[in-house]
């Protein structure tokens, strides 16, 4: 930690704020949870390469085109050139001239996701889907008597490969926070196991930007405070984090210590799905604003499909160059079911604000009032937590 050799905790030695409740510590007599986070490798792009041999080994972008739109997903061959999801297609093509654009086939991705979740269900009913291609599994009960959470993760990955022809990466740990980060450690087609006695050291070595919710702006703010790693965060007292990071303070405080008591929730629901972009140059002309919104629609619809959800409310957000922000929403009787419908509603909401008197620096669109898709839902009858297996169960 920098700051003249004194970290934030040394510069700010105040008692923890009484209004912030401390997260309860786990029962020292209870066995730690066994949590697996499964994340498919470049899911959309990998499905396309699987189904079209001509795409294998080549840089592929799902979504967009060489002339317009945005990338919904990129193969690892494309990522090697710096191509990323939500990147404008023209930028992606400039970075990778050999990039091949493929139209998304969301109905195929949903069908493959069903196969993958059926494999999960062989080992536990406690499945918390995050999207079509990733989920948390609580395998603490070891219902099939495998004897090791690591072995369960290996079996799941092997069965996914055998039955779908795709690869998945896995993180195995005692809580959700670490399991999710661990699944990204050895991608693609890898596994990372972090046992309870390793958790604090594992988190201490993480760059601060790897913590959930720490985007580029927050990472820059942290760097200015001398916070670069999990170890630096752990030196900060709660009051210091509250002052600088507000509602995220308690999460950062506990996560930096490897603590996360959240349970895997099969009935997890998401409130909204959104996409927004901040522009280097203000937008004011109607054609520029409408084109920008069309790109945001591409990003948002890919996220909606990935989450396997549908929403009935569409909300437009505009932030002007004087930092004044407005939102305008439209609610429907039935969920939005297509990109074209989403675009039409978004453009109508934007049209109601035209012409704009000031330049627009940020444009966003979101869908809410979500109905979860059945594709990744856990059957209600399977939600009850299973009885733990008697006997030794290792990580």
From TrEMBL:
Task: Give the GO molecular function terms.
Answer: damaged DNA binding; DNA-directed DNA polymerase activity; magnesium ion binding
What SUPFAM superfamilies is this protein classified in?
A: DNA/RNA polymerases, Lesion bypass DNA polymerase (Y-family), little finger domain
Q: Cite the EC number.
A: 2.7.7.7
Catalytic residues of the enzyme: 134
A Pfam family: IMS_HHH_1
In chain numbering, where does the site feature Substrate discrimination fall?
Answer: 44
Principal location: cytoplasm
Q: Which reaction does it catalyse?
A: DNA(n) + a 2'-deoxyribonucleoside 5'-triphosphate = DNA(n+1) + diphosphate
Q: For the UmuC domain, which residue ranges apply?
A: 35-215
Keyword annotations: Cytoplasm, DNA damage, DNA repair, DNA replication, DNA-binding, DNA-directed DNA polymerase, Magnesium, Metal-binding, Mutator protein, Nucleotidyltransferase, Transferase
Q: Where does Mg(2+) bind?
A: 39, 133
Which cofactors, by name?
A: Mg(2+)
Which InterPro entries does the entry link to?
A: DNA/RNA_pol_sf, DNA_pol_Y-fam_lit_finger_sf, DNA_pol_Y-fam_little_finger, DNA_polymerase-Y, DNApol_IV, IMS_HHH_1, Rev_trsase/Diguanyl_cyclase, UmuC
Q: Where in the cell is it found?
A: Cytoplasm
**GO terms (BP aspect):** DNA repair; DNA-templated DNA replication; error-prone translesion synthesis; SOS response
How the cofactor is bound: the record states: Binds 2 magnesium ions per subunit.
> What family is this protein classified in?
Belongs to the DNA polymerase type-Y family.
- PANTHER family named in the record: DNA POLYMERASE KAPPA, DNA REPAIR POLYMERASE UMUC / TRANSFERASE FAMILY MEMBER
Free-text function comment from the UniProt entry:
Poorly processive, error-prone DNA polymerase involved in untargeted mutagenesis. Copies undamaged DNA at stalled replication forks, which arise in vivo from mismatched or misaligned primer ends. These misaligned primers can be extended by PolIV. Exhibits no 3'-5' exonuclease (proofreading) activity. May be involved in translesional synthesis, in conjunction with the beta clamp from PolIII.
Q: What is this protein called?
A: DNA polymerase IV
What is the species of this protein?
Mangrovimicrobium sediminis
């Amino acid at each position: 930690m920098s700051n003249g050799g004194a970290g934030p905790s040394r510069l700010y030695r105040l008692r923890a704020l009484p209004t912030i409740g401390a997260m309860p510590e786990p029962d020292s007599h209870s066995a730690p949870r066994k949590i697996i986070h499964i994340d498919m490798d470049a899911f959309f792009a990998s499905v396309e390469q699987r189904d079209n041999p001509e795409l294998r080994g080549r840089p592929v972008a799902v979504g967009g085109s060489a002339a317009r739109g945005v990338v919904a997903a990129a193969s690892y061959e494309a990522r090697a050139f710096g191509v990323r999801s939500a990147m404008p297609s023209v930028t992606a093509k400039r970075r990778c001239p050999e990039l091949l654009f493929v139209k998304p086939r969301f109905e195929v991705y949903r069908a493959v996701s069903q196969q993958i979740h059926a494999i999960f269900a062989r080992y536990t009913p406690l499945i918390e889907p995050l999207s079509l291609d990733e989920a948390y599994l609580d395998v603490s009960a070891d219902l099939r008597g495998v004897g090791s959470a690591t072995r369960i993760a290996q079996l799941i990955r092997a069965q996914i490969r055998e039955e779908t022809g795709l690869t998945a990466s896995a993180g195995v740990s005692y809580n959700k926070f670490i399991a999710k980060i661990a699944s990204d450690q050895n991608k693609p087609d890898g596994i990372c196991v972090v046992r309870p006695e390793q958790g604090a050291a594992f988190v201490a070595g993480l760059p601060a930007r790897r913590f959930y919710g720490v985007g580029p702006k927050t990472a820059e703010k942290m760097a200015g405070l001398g916070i670069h790693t999990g170890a630096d965060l752990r030196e900060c007292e709660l009051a210091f984090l509250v002052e600088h990071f507000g509602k995220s303070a308690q999460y950062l405080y506990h996560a930096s210590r490897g603590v996360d008591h959240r349970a895997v929730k099969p009935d997890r629901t998401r409130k909204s799905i959104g996409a927004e972009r901040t522009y280097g140059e203000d937008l004011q002309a109607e054609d520029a604003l409408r084109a920008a919104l069309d790109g945001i629609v591409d990003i948002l619809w890919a996220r909606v499909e990935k989450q396997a959800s549908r929403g009935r409310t569409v909300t437009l957000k505009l932030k002007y160059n004087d930092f004044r922000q407005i939102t305008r929403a439209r609610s429907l009787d039935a969920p939005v079911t297509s990109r074209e419908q989403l675009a039409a509603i978004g453009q109508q909401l934007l049209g109601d604000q035209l012409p704009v008197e000031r330049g627009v620096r940020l444009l966003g669109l979101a869908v809410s009032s979500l109905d979860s898709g059945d594709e990744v839902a856990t059957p209600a009858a399977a939600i009850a937590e299973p009885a733990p297996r008697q006997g030794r169960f290792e990580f």
